[in-house]
Amino acid sequence: MHSTALALIQLGAVFFGLGLLGKMAWRIGISPIPLYLIGGLAFGQGGLVPLHGIEDFTHLSSEIGVILLLLLLGLEYSAAELVTGLKRSWTAGLMDIVLNATPGVIAALILGWGPLGALAMGGVTYISSSGIIAKVLGDLGRLGNRETPVVLSVLVFEDLAMAVYLPILTAVLAGVSFVGGLTAVGISLAAITVVLVIALKFGRYVSALVDSPDPEVFLLKVLGAALLVAGVASELQVSAAVGAFLLGIAISGSTAENATRMLEPLRDLFAAMFFVVFGLNTDPASIPPVLALAVALAVVTTLTKVATGWWAARRQGIGRMGRARAGAALVARGEFSIVIASLTVASGAVDQQLAALATAYVLLMAVLGPVAARVVEPLARKFTRKRGPAPATA
Amino acid sequence: MNVEVTPLPGIGTRQDFMIRAGRRIGVITHRDGKFELIVSSLDDPDDCTASIALTPAEASTLAGLLGSPQLVAHLQEQQREVAGISTKQFPIVPGSRFDGSPLAETELRTRTGASIVAVVRAGSVHPSPRPDFVFQGGDLVVVVGTADGLGAAAELLGGG
Fold this sequence. Notes:
- The structure holds two protein chains of two kinds.
- By secondary structure, chain A is mainly alpha-helical.
- In chain A, 81% of the residues lie in helices and 0% in strands.
- Chain A contains 15 helices and no strands.
- Chain A has helices spanning 2-27, 33-43, 55-76, 79-110, 114-126, 130-139, 148-174, 178-210, 215-235, 240-250, 253-280, 288-315, 320-329, 335-347, 353-387.
- In chain A, helix 4 (79-110) crosses helix 7, helix 5 (114-126) runs antiparallel to helix 14 (335-347) and helix 9 (215-235) packs across helix 10.
- Chain B has helices spanning 56-78, 108-112, 147-159, and strands at residues 4-8, 12-18, 24-30, 35-40, 48-54, 86-91, 115-121, 124-127, 140-145.
- By secondary structure, chain B is α+β, with helices and mostly antiparallel strands.
- A five-stranded antiparallel beta sheet of chain B has the order 1-2-3-4-5. In chain B, strands 6-9-7-8 form a four-stranded antiparallel beta sheet, with helices on both faces.
- Chain B starts with a strand and ends with a helix.
- Classes of the chains: A mainly alpha, B alpha+beta.
- Chain A binds chain B through residues 76-77, 81, 84-85, 130, 134, 141-149, 152-153, 155-156, 257, 261, 318-319, 321-322, 325, and chain B through 6-11, 14, 16, 24, 26, 28, 31-32, 36, 38, 40, 44-48, 50-51.
């Protein structure tokens, strides 16, 4: 009884503290993710206040957090949107991959983490945070801007790239041999193709399976289906998160919209727990040695994302200021970089320092992203006035 | 008018068009049914000076406000053939004499010869209001009559 009371008090304190951090974060206009990570760093090993007795719960909630993050990423865009996005923005999407994965790959190779580490770090620096970006665009009243569809189509492409990347990453992390890895990659690509075809042709049957007019029944069915698929996927060595993601893509139409509305608060709750647990498992002492590299990566990948957005917007005939806004909007990295780092570290196949580097990197980028989106206009205007028309680097 | 429809993946749809003043105006329909009124800025057509969130009720009121002058124009069009008759609209100023009183109390027809053919309230049109129709401040009263009759109606409804 006493231990239950202690656990409840600890959990309550953690959630309440996270709530205060989140409120503070949005008030100063940044994403709460870095604050959650710092919160986790403060509690965990080597941190200020170690938590005891709730590890089982926090561990499971952080797993559910990853599953919900990926399920909602899959739900965010319909299969039709993904396919049109692929057709319309594949050049910008490829540019995005080349420019933004390369710095991470190079950093991992310099640190001697091998091809696996390079694959993981490439993903960490590549993937923008669609959550932070959508929120910031809405807050700044830029949804009606002409460059916004360009920004969104880059995000759609990244979403699709994740559908291919995550199964490959987890397969390679699990089956280390080259041939085994190739087989796993083949199976992953086949799986995502099958899921997309199912979603496009038979999406309503999958949706009908989980749909219900009663919100309570609906919530239980969707959550249950996500955990079931995630569990089975995990048993098949494909990683729970990937399973949930593919399920999210397969659910479509109004069912997807309702599911998103229903699951968003749950996702926020468990995802907060996931960031805290990731912070918990990262030793704060391991961050200073990689801090300089993280700062260098942050600077380089800010510039490469701005270049990506600039280029993509120019192709659509957007003016200079709009191009600068599109570039700056894409800068934020967040939840999915941490998901990639956590999958990688959990497999044990790569140097544990990757967690420290990814943490430091996301701490910087999740703050820098919203700030960049905000200051890009005054900065670009100043720049244009002083030196004539020139690209803005926020 | 050439309305451009742009899908916003994950958010909803943007519908906008260029107006003669050189600005883009339009509406963003969010997936969850919320509306946003957008107006592009003057110096940067890509950017928006305003994006205003509207509830469905507010959106329909605004649509009515923009649509109701067209009602008067429509009536004027119809009465063009009848010589000497025209249409005007008068507001019921909040707190004025007829705010809260029924239509019959104005005795408009007896006193001026003009008649009330419609009342526009909060963007929606009430055609041929009955004598027991109670006015509220902010109503727009659409009146048909001769020039003299309309002048008298203006004095009666507005002045007093």
